[in-house]
């Protein structure tokens, strides 16, 4: 971590490319650093100048007499490798490469070159293509953004430079307090994961706030986030189809699937902000307030209308309002006129003044039922917003509890000023009820994360060796798709229930196997070339006798021959016929950023029409898998709809978690898994059809092998 | 309309209850009226004062020497009837009853009394329980809100008084321009429908903006809205389950189903705002900009990041970004450096200054492909937001087109100031990209309304007499539920396809009917008491022969006898067996505010688990019904999913529209209709089961009648 301290809390900063032209970015960086009040040493470097902005200028970084913690590199891209080399020789600890013209414009080669040079010298790199870094406690603005952000406790890391500068300015409007503001750029070296790890250990930071277009090293990101003791809130840009494409073209990074990012955020305990305002609003709440440790949200208001709006928002954002207990209602009733409403929302009525607010808030916070409090105030002609604000603050302080509060004042200039006073006193203020409730919901989401934080993945006992053997054999035979019997064996080895079945090479075989399983059976063609078995006439179901089995074998073989005369036929798989149940799908894709993931959904229209599926990054616990099952829209089906018995949700979670272990264990081998359908019963489930696709880059050469060895 | 002009543009205002106590609301109303600069005549009325706030005070309204257009009534509720009587005698044209203590606290009786007195004299009433009215063009603040709102072109009508006062103050922060601000209160007389009608004709108003908890006279509301030549935007509070309950308890009004309000908004061409910020943002856009007359939205930005965020928002709000045509890209490319991106979003890059913005905006607006333009700007250190704003305005003016534009500046104080300058110059400005896109989407929604405005309902030719006869007979027999054969006849009379079928009274009958229909048939018990026919063992399907028909008849009769020995048995309905198809549901409820409505959805899990249904207020055209079909989530099923042929969507729309005519024609008779399932085919559909429930208040007495007459 030492080298990162040197970068984010440097004792000395060199600006390589400190131009004398006031319009040049190099010059601006230098000026900003001086203006901001930075107390460390500043070394301008410019081969053509002896003095810039009143400071002695060095012709090369090598000439700087003292140690240099970081160098801001503001020279054209083509000179960056040489400058990096010099910095390395000088013993500079970190580089902040403001220069652009690297991977974002297709020059991955140049970027790699720079990283390799830096590695040689043990230097870390922020960038290239960054605005710079800002550290409020150090009063250090080492960037070309014109001034430091509003001071506070949030480390804000942005993948967009333009947005970072704009957000910097906006922090002063919204009074969102920032400890550090970091432009992360192309992430040639330091990425989101590194920065999360660093700011988790930074004493000036209480919340980590991210603007993300696409991460690099998804695993590192996920693990740093999961291990963070501080809340993290992220705005992911590119969550729409076209937005993802735009983000990809803009940063050159792989934007990845929205659903996989959502999974990573959940597993990394990251609160996802729905838009830029939400990022600001929730950053403020998480910086100023403790998490909400339960689902009981109380709303206190002086206006019924905003109370209703807040109630709507609470349902929308997942903390629906509940009835308050009677004793709390009685307490609330003391602070309102007779025509007030002590229910939740607590309506103090338009007559409410400071006394009513203060009294009701104090009593509410002290009541054990209340886990979080949203206070709403509509500006009136006979109350002073500042006075109300002071009442709220006093009640909050007096209560002495560790529960979150958020406030919305709807009104004019006086309300805005009072709101800012509240923020300065540690109470998040918003100008609309829904924003206050949304911010409280972020505190609740974070609270829920903390409640489940202990449920880690513990590997199952599985037969890994068997899977290694099956995959090894498939590789040796040059196959990139396992046959169905192989896939079933792999599943079985990891404890996923599959129907009984065996490969038949001839009619007699088929009959023998069918008898041993017991009729009725299903029979399916097995051939690496025939993926769509039904289309090929390669599937027969509900086979009830020896005769039918013989006939089915013949027909399947004939159909397959007709469908693809060149297909390599392994035989016919004879399988126990699974009884009717609820069709689900379990699958896996190996994401370029996050590696193996697992998907779950209900089959049929749910997946095809409604795209009602959910993801997690593998591996993960059965508890996490249970969350997946519960978050699909069709969960009601599994709970037992239309008079049906509930399905075995535990069995699903077990299977999903086991699959997550499989795809993680074989992350370098398995590209894709598709278990469809997985039929779920009142008790247990059965993986009726399964496909496993291997990573092709590992397949050296496809050489057909005789049936005996590779069947 | 004369009397409403007298209320909203009064030449003279009396304040009845003009207290000398500066804290009293009556005093404040008087002071506000004087302070605001109102040029009409002001008459304080107070029996105990000769002078208030420097004006001569009258002891009674009767003493006022001149005509009084409106009287603000600020006396305790119990005195309001007497004051109303006096005002009537005086010839006051309208009353603004600020006094509270009426239906909102359970005193409907007092409210009714006041309305009756007012009616007697032809006076209209705003309220009771209002803040008052504000008219910016007249500089009239006839309310206890402390000052007039920011001037502009929106009439803002609020059902919450506290929120109205708070919004009044907030208009000065957000610079949302208001022509009139009206507190509508309990709507004892004037309701939303009346005010929409009035402001549609008001020359100072360009957009009507509503905060609604629950409407009164839904039909009037719907028709006024539909006939409005001005855009309407509404924030409906109480869209969540608990929010609806809170709204109901707060206003005493029936909040009604969220889905039915959504239907009314669509049919009334009302843009629904998702929250308070959206109401403000969209009000501004609709007041300042023309509707967006097509789906092509172009985004111009100086930051890739905000471009991506805007793209995400565009998809979320229903105006997804599309590729711009090549010639437009070429035009855009002229206004950016080489590394800019001329695609949509058009990324001028962080280097963009006024010239690039001005040039690209001018060219974009003039290009015929562009239907709407969102301009994004991230504040930078080397550009001046004011200069950019002026460039945007100049380009917009120069282009001379009638296309909408919305702007987002993300930044600090300078950006906010420049944004306010833009607003003053008619260009809506927002502080975040998603708010700008959401506002543009409101302009698009309104544009779409205008495009379909002509598709009015034209009644079908139906056999209304037959339905009258069936309903009449049912009434005469004291029935509140039609039997299935009756319901089917009703449907058939309105042109909805029903399977062939007839009532059998004995086995021979059953066989005869089955033969005439052709096997297979379905047989079902017919009894007013047996609603859940399957539970009673009263349904047999797939009956293929005479013998089976006889057996089925016997069994059904026996089962029914066993199920409910006291049930009145009409016989067994023998019905053509509908072939397999896609199950849908068509239904109707008679809403207390909006009257008959029609619901459509897919059957099974779609309705039961996903609640995937949509509503409209009856009657409505087939085109409107087509919109219904297309807006359900399961629409993909009907378009032909999983290799199925597409279903007959036209037939569904036809049936839904016909049902809307039926429930409208018999709005005083029919309480509920449930056609479930309605099986839809590639060609046509069939209403397989149907239930019609009559309004019970019309049933005088339930006297069982002999089978022959009432069967």
Secondary structure elements and pairings:
The structure is a homodimer of 711-residue chains.
Chain A: H1 2-8, E1 12-16, H2 25-36, E2 41-45, E3 51-52, E4 55-56, E5 70-73, H3 80-90, E6 94-97, H4 108-120, E7 124-126, E8 132-135, E9 140-143, E10 151-158, H5 161-174, E11 178-183, H6 192-200, E12 207-212, H7 218-227, E13 232-236, H8 241-251, H9 258-267, E14 270-272, H10 276-288, E15 297-301, H11 304-316, H12 326-333, E16 346-347, H13 354-366, E17 372-378, H14 385-399, E18 405-410, H15 413-424, E19 429-430, H16 433-452, H17 464-476, H18 484-493, E20 501-504, H19 507-517, E21 521-526, E22 539-543, H20 546-563, E23 571-576, E24 582-591, E25 595-602, H21 605-608, E26 613-617, H22 622-631, H23 635-640, H24 649-665, E27 670-680, E28 685-687, E29 690-694, H25 707-710
Parallel strand pairs in A: 1-2, 1-5, 5-6, 6-7, 10-11, 10-12, 12-13, 13-14, 15-16, 15-17, 17-18, 18-19
Antiparallel strand pairs in A: 3-4, 8-9, 8-11, 20-23, 21-22, 21-23, 24-25, 24-27, 25-26, 27-28, 27-29
């Amino acid at each position: 971590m030492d080298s990162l301290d040197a970068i984010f809390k440097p004792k000395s900063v060199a600006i390589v490319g400190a131009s004398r032209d006031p319009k040049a970015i190099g010059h601006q960086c230098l000026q900003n650093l001086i203006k901001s009040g930075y107390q460390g040493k500043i070394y301008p470097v410019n081969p053509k100048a002896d003095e810039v902005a009143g400071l002695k200028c060095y012709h090369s970084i090598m000439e700087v007499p003292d140690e240099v913690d970081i160098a801001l590199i503001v020279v054209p891209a083509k000179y960056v490798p040489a400058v990096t080399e010099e910095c390395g020789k000088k013993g500079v600890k970190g580089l902040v490469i403001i220069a652009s013209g690297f991977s974002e414009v297709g020059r991955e080669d140049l970027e790699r070159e720079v990283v390799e040079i830096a590695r040689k010298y043990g230097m870390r790199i922020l960038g290239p293509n960054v605005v710079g870094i800002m550290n409020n406690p150090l009063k250090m603005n080492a960037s070309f953004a014109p001034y430091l952000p509003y001071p506070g406790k949030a480390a804000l890391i942005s993948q967009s430079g333009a947005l970072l500068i704009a957000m910097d300015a906006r922090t002063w409007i919204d009074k969102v307090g920032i400890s550090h503001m970091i432009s992360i750029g192309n992430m040639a070296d330091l990425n989101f994961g590194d920065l999360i790890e660093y700011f988790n250990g930074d004493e000036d930071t209480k919340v980590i706030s991210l603007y993300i277009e696409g991460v690099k090293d998804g695993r590192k990101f996920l693990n740093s986030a999961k291990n963070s003791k501080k809340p993290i809130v992220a705005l992911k840009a590119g969550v729409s189809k076209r937005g993802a494409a735009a983000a990809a073209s803009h940063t050159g990074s792989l934007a990845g699937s929205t659903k996989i990012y959502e999974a990573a955020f959940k597993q990394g305990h990251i609160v996802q902000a729905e838009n830029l305002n939400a990022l600001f609003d929730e950053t403020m709440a998480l910086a100023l307030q403790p998490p909400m440790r339960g689902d009981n949200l109380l709303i206190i208001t002086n206006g019924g209308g905003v109370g209703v709006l807040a109630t709507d928002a609470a349902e929308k954002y997942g903390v629906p309002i509940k009835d308050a207990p009677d004793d709390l209602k009685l307490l609330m009733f003391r602070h309102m006129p007779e025509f007030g409403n002590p229910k939740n929302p607590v309506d103090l009525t338009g007559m409410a003044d400071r006394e009513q607010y203060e009294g009701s808030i104090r009593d509410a916070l002290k009541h054990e039922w209340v886990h979080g409090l949203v206070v709403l105030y509509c500006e009136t002609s006979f109350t002073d917003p500042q006075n109300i604000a002071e009442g709220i603050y006093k009640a909050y302080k007096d209560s002495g509890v560790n529960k979150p509060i958020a406030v919305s004042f709807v009104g004019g200039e006086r309300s805005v000023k009072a709101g800012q006073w509240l923020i300065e006193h540690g109470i998040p203020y918003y100008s609309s009820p829904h924003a206050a409730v949304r911010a409280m919901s972020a505190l609740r989401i974070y609270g829920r994360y903390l409640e489940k934080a202990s449920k880690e993945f513990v590997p199952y006992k599985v037969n890994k060796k068997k899977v290694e053997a099956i995959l090894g054999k498939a590789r040796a035979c040059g196959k990139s798709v396992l046959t169905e019997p192989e896939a079933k064996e792999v599943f079985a080895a990891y404890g996923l229930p599959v129907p009984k079945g065996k490969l038949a090479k001839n009619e007699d075989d088929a009959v023998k196997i069918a008898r041993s399983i017991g009729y009725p059976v299903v029979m399916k063609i097995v051939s690496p070339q025939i993926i769509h078995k039904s289309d090929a006439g390669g599937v027969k179901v509900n086979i009830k006798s020896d005769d039918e089995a013989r006939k089915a074998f013949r027909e399947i073989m004939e159909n397959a021959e007709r469908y693809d005369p060149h297909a390599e036929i392994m035989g016919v798989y004879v399988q126990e016929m699974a009884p009717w149940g609820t069709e689900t799908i379990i699958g896996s894709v190996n994401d370029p950023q996050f590696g193996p993931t697992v998907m779950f959904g209900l089959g049929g229209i749910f997946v095809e029409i409604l795209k009602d599926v959910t993801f997690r990054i593998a591996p993960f616990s059965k508890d996490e898998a249970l969350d997946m099952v519960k978050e699909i829209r069709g969960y009601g089906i599994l709970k037992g709809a239309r008079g049906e018995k509930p399905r075995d949700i535990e069995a699903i979670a077990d299977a999903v978690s086991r699959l997550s272990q499989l795809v993680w264990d074989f992350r370098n081998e398995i590209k894709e898994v598709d278990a469809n359908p997985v039929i779920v019963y009142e008790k247990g489930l059965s993986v009726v059809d399964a496909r496993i696709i291997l990573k092709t880059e590992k397949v050296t050469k496809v050489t057909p092998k005789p049936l005996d060895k590779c069947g």
